[in-house]
Amino acid sequence: MAVVVPAYREARLIGRTLRAIPAWIDDVVVVDDGSDDDTAGAAERHGDRRVRVVRHPTNRGVGAAIATGYRHAFEAGADVAVVMAGDAQMDPDDLPRLLQAMGQGAGYAKGDRLSWPEARKRMPWTRWLGNHILAALTRWATGLDVRDSQCGYTALSREAASLLDLESIWPRYGYPNDLLGAMATAGVTVQEVPVRPVYRDEESGVGWRDAVIVIPALLARVAWRRWRSENHNAVRALPSSR
Ligand SMILES: Nc1nc2c(ncn2[C@@H]2O[C@H](COP(=O)(O)OP(=O)(O)OP(=O)(O)O)[C@@H](O)[C@H]2O)c(=O)[nH]1
Ligand SMILES: [Mg+2]
Question: Which CATH architecture has domain 2-234?
Answer without folding.
Answer: Alpha-Beta Complex (3.90)
